[in-house]
Amino acid sequence: MTLPEGYTFRRLEVSDYSNNYLETLKTLTSVGNISEDQFKHLFEEWSRLPEIYNPHVITNPAGTVVATGMLLIERKLIHERGSVGHVEDISVAPSEQGKKLGLSMVNGLTELAEKKGCYKVILDCSEHNVRFYEKCGYIKGGTEMIKRFT
Amino acid sequence: MTLPEGYTFRRLEVSDYSNNYLETLKTLTSVGNISEDQFKHLFEEWSRLPEIYNPHVITNPAGTVVATGMLLIERKLIHERGSVGHVEDISVAPSEQGKKLGLSMVNGLTELAEKKGCYKVILDCSEHNVRFYEKCGYIKGGTEMIKRFT
């Protein structure tokens, strides 16, 4: 993974609540009003299960969060009790586009999945992002199917 | 969910190791040699995290496992700390095909996801299974992208 000078890829910290984490995620989809207590509660839930939840950020030279991503690791029985990584919720702050931070985030999470012993990593994306993920070394798999309740 | 008479949809039990669970999964993909101790270890890992891992089976009138499926529940920050269900590892024993057990399994896991408060359920499938999942109330989403390490 190559980052611009002064940028850092690291695990999410609880203090990122007031460090542009939610604002960056909002470029991806709706987040809603999350209080600091609610954030801490979820942060602790994720932190108690480091073998499953691996939330990461990229910070800029000022130390501000400018990209987000989650690696969720699923323990299966198939493939000799293999683990599968799921890459989720990749977002990049609009003011930081053009620096390949999305590529760095995906590459960082993909390397982490390999280091943690996953036999594969998967993710779902819209058709116009297929080319981007191919640049990250992914190939097309199947079709994502969705059922929404709300 | 409608099952043929005598068939039951239930959570996986540790005794299913010697009740055709692995053999049913093998119709889906390679499983490898899993000892009873290895199975118990993973079963306990899943059981410690019932808010995440929901492995299910369908048994036939003889009580034998003839279908499998997993609902993995992911806790996100987005969508007001919403949960997303991932339907994984659906398999049906070849001798029990034609009884719509796959449909019952997917419907059972989908209902469970809704009951557990997920705002959506997603899964990945091959193109020739799209029609099947449409019958389960799913619609096409994006494209699955994969990177394999082994």
UniProtKB/TrEMBL annotation, chains A, B:
CDD domains: NAT_SF. It catalyses: D-glucosamine 6-phosphate + acetyl-CoA = N-acetyl-D-glucosamine 6-phosphate + CoA + H(+). The gene is Piso0_000330. Pfam families: Acetyltransf_1. Keywords: Acyltransferase, Transferase. Pathway: Nucleotide-sugar biosynthesis; UDP-N-acetyl-alpha-D-glucosamine biosynthesis; N-acetyl-alpha-D-glucosamine 1-phosphate from alpha-D-glucosamine 6-phosphate (route I): step 1/2. One of its GO terms (molecular function) is glucosamine 6-phosphate N-acetyltransferase activity. Its EC number is 2.3.1.4. Belongs to the acetyltransferase family. GNA1 subfamily. Residues 7-150 form the N-acetyltransferase domain. The keyword DNA repair does not apply. Transmembrane segments: none annotated. GO terms for biological process: UDP-N-acetylglucosamine biosynthetic process. This is Glucosamine 6-phosphate N-acetyltransferase.
